[in-house]
């Protein structure tokens, strides 16, 4: 097996191999060397700006203060620069020299100009704290002297998860600050398996990304990954062109490979415009990326990058006005906050005309309806002939999200006819293209498929690909049987009448309330700290209103037949929190009734959340419902501000992105294939490890739904539907029963305990227990499963499961010790050394979740204290109280910080909770160490060394540094103030006290699972 050092050397050779690649800098050994190297490069690139006068030490310190940022996100904001250039302005110490405008990085000079590419490895970190061990990095890639990409390596005996955890540990220990604060991307690899992730203070394993080539074939070997991703110019493009800043979540986003391939495919389609301004050489096309894979983000970067082409005067992101109440326009504004390209909305068609003909280069976001209105008004307005002629000659590229819906063939023909001199370029994005199998009805020469309308498919990434890459989840579909079996399903009229009956609708509400325990993850809320949410779609506004009234009666305790299940009420007393949203006309049939119904719904909503929406503010209400259901904004993350279920007809079934949305309840006939997949895909966003599938529950036409779903998935997975759907209940329970049979044999005393069995038997036990845990987690997601079944049907009582879990942990340690960390590559039938148990019983309240809640409470620049509620405070209080039950030491520190924040929120504006807590934890640890050293007459530095290397499972006499700590010289000093104690007793007391001190005071500070 290759040693980690060999893997590192091979990687470096790959990085420096070839023309104009990375230069290895073996002479750079520590952070001071990195700073000196940076200033040398900075000075050489700015001789004129510096007027040949070298930087002073003070000036270097000023520049450092402008470069070093408190978070990776802040660093990325700075690195965004302006027009591709990153600069710092410096007032020279010699005032006669004035202000120097220094160019740090020019992203317009990728693989050329003054760009300097260097690789370093085994850099010695400065110690941030006295107790820190000496830390060395693996491989870091520098652009113009600044660390941009960091690579953490393990050998093949270890998993990439260990490398991932190592990076997070460095972040927690504040190792990646100083010059390392500019890192934008992390890469982890064990040689065989390689992944990347955007830099952030709290990394989430779910966002580790695998690279695939342009044909969606995985690239996992570290040398292949280095060739495809880390070589020049690709690595610089990753940092300069394929990063987006989410201003709402304050996160860095590094695009996934399929997004990058799509952008590059569109660049190739428009390549002729870059070289010779040949408008006819460029061609249009569409991108098929499955819903939920980030099409809006991809289309934003396409609009951004196309505008860099000199021949293209404007890029227009075209949407349908019905999508304006979705998150598309909000997302564009969020991404553009730190971008060099302006995004401009358009208030009306006249504003649109002025912006299209202006001299500046900007991305314009507008609706197809405004574009059509523009043509009409320009033609009718005789005073606008000059503007009309100018508009006709504009060279445009249209980017169309959900292109099959936003622009019809007729509408595209109309736009093309207007811009006839320079035919517009069209780049459509869709997760559900229209094929021959589901083509539009024939209408003269109009396009019937997506390809006919936009051109060839430029890049493809299907649901099957996305599930394989863990970019989205699969679907668990439950076609619920009809509540009355008297009517044949083929008798549509009779069935429709039954489905609109009160008895059917009340049965559905009762079933939804029951289903929510599993589907919305309520059974897991006490462990996880939150539940999921759902959309409930009906066939008409009238039906939606009736469902809303039924739910309202249940919530108010006015329905004698339906009650919220007690097992849900115990966990979430305020469940369900319901809202309804639909489009309202003004003068049509039924509009007045709809308005009256909505008035009551608004009244309920205002009472529930303390808002004040009126009928004149329906657009604002709809946005608020969207945000509250999506839970992306900080103010909607506390339980008091959340919705559980939103009732809709068609709203939110396309273009709505909410990772916390787990379930779609459907009480309407089957929709067309593309609409079905669109609706399903609201539920399958990646969120946490407990969200396994997008949950779909249908309450009408079970046989028809089954056929429609299978046909739709066949079409949009290109025959790979089996990889998209979760196993059936029967398949899952059979797997669980098979696993249970293997694990039940360990119940009772049957010969030698597994913890003392031969090591091969112990390894087999690990595999069997992991299979049991996986299959148990799987069956728990089905409504057919009952917690009582474990004991009643299978004899798995709580005591046995707890004993089994304890045995698993002990055996895992035994196997790890026996293998000594040098195990070879495991075959497919062995246990997984990195497997995380899903059903380990009661777990600690999640530390990271409490930090998230407190961070959401802290004020940012655009917030005021009036937005904070008592309910938010109570939620945090409750979680800290629960944390105290398992880790009182950590809970006390957290509570101290929380008390200070509540007393003076303004003092903590824009502060990072994890950094504040780390400082308090460090101070608490230092105070504990000083007290223990003083009480026992110990040298503080020697005590720190022992604690830093302490092994609670080792013999007391074998702890590293213990002999120095307990030397005769130390005892002699201690005895001066304690004459009645002998050395033997003193040593015994210290050794015993050390373990208690480590386990009960020091260790809890680091236990933040």
Record the SSE blueprint.
Elements: H1 4-16, E1 23-24, H2 31-45, H3 47-50, H4 57-67, H5 72-80, E2 85-91, E3 99-106, E4 117-121, E5 139-143, E6 146-153, H6 160-172, E7 185-189, E8 194-198, E9 209-212, E10 218-219, H7 222-230, H8 234-240, E11 243-246, E12 251-254, H9 257-269, H10 271-276, E13 285-289, H11 295-306, E14 314-319, H12 328-336, E15 343-345, H13 349-357, E16 363-367, H14 368-380, H15 385-392, E17 396-401, H16 403-406, H17 409-418, E18 425-430, H18 450-454, E19 457-461, H19 463-468, E20 474-479, H20 492-499, H21 502-519, H22 525-528, E21 533-538, H23 541-555, H24 566-571, E22 578-580, H25 591-609, H26 618-630, E23 645-648, E24 661-667, H27 673-680, E25 693-698, H28 702-716, H29 729-743, H30 759-779, H31 789-792, H32 798-819, H33 847-857, H34 870-884, H35 888-903, H36 913-936, H37 940-948, H38 962-965, H39 968-975, H40 983-1006
Parallel strand pairs: 1-4, 6-7, 13-18, 13-19, 14-16, 14-17, 15-16, 17-18, 20-25, 21-23, 21-24, 22-23, 24-25
Antiparallel strand pairs: 2-3, 4-5, 5-6, 7-8, 8-9, 9-10, 11-12
Helix pairs in contact: 1-7, 9-11, 13-14, 14-17, 27-28, 29-30, 30-32, 33-34, 34-35, 35-36, 36-40
